[in-house]
Every structure is written in C-alpha cells, then in structure tokens.
Amino acid sequence: MELAALCSVFASLRVLPSRSQFFQYESVALSCELHGNLSGWRIRRSTDEGNTTEDCPSSSSVCFIRELYYWDSGVYWCESAEGKCSNKVNVTVTALDLILEAPVLPVVEGEAVTLGCRNRTSSGFFFFFYKNGLLVGNSSTGNWTIERVSKSDEGVYKCSSSGRDFFSPESKLDVTGVSGETPAWPLMPIGLPVVGVCLMIALMLLCLKRNLKGTRSRRFMRSRVPVGSRRAGYD
Fold it and tell me: pTM for the whole thing?
C-alpha cells in the first residue's frame, strides 16, 4: 500500500466490467495499460480482509478472478519492479442484493455521467440515489444521469430501492478538469526542456536552409548575366 502511494504514476489500471462494485460470485478482469513494454509489471492489491498487500492471483499485468468473494474487496493497482505504478481502484464485493454502478476512473467535467442501481434478485423497484448521505435523485429504471457533471458533483454516492431496508455500498465519484488534470501517463519533468531544444534545432535548420537557398539563387542569377554586361561593369 505504501509503495502505491509513493511511486510515480506511469500506467492505468482498467477494470472490466467498468465498475468498482460487484456481487459475490461475479467475475472481473483487471489489466495494466501503458505506452511501452508491460514486462515486469504486475497487479497488486491490499485487501480489507486481514489488511494484507499481495499480488493479484495471476501475478502478472492481467488478472482474472472467476468468482469474487467478500475477502477480495480492497484496493488494486499496477506496479513495476522499478517502483512505477498506476491509479488505484477500490473494489467492493458484497453479499447483499444491491450495488451501485459508477465510473471507476475520474470523469471529465461537462460530460454526461450515468449511475446505475442494480438489484440482483428482483426488478421493477423504484430506485433512489444519494450523495454524501442526501437524496439527490430517483429513477424507475435504475439509471440516473447527471447531464453535465461538474466539480460540485464530486462526492460519495450510494443507492437504495423501494421495498428494501438497506443501501448499496458507497462509491466515490471524482471529476477532473476539461484539460485532464491527472493523465494516465504524465510527461517526465525533462519533457519541456527537450521540446524546447528540438524547436530551437528545427528553427536553426530552417534558417540554414533558407540561407543556402538564397545563396544558390544569387549564384544562379549571376550566371544568367551576359558576359558583355559583366565586362561593362568592370570598365
């Protein structure tokens, strides 16, 4: 857990299906994604049960769990031997009959975001959505959409359904700026100086090319002047 908090973020952890809450006995696939070689990367997790840090069962950059149990709940992330890592995803496995489907990764401000309340055993209920403990929406379909999400929509969400006296587990919704405040593969600190040097070299080559072109053009024009004219210039 400490390694994930201190390492530099270079990769992204993807979850399929793309949600952080699961019913017990469901399946999930996790994978590391980055620009480069995945050799040496593995998926790690810090589980709620026993508070231990360990490799995901497959011990590689792809992890498939065929049947989830409540003890699989915890924080998952990608980690390399060099101390690089990915974003962290909080996975919750519940034995209850209600889960909240929410985006795993931060959503971009201005986009539409749909939250889903799923009942495993029944359908046809009326669903209620809560943010930070307060009722913010309801739906007869189980889906509730925020048309243009903003920073004010950040918070901890959960849902309930009519005829049930319990809530789903909670999930946190994070919102980033339009420019993307937390890119999955951030630029190295030396990125900007390198770009600056490349631009300077490109400008120097362009100036040199123009100077050579100008010199050749003057030589060509001089070669077109009649011999008599050149002599007249020296008389």
Answer: 0.70
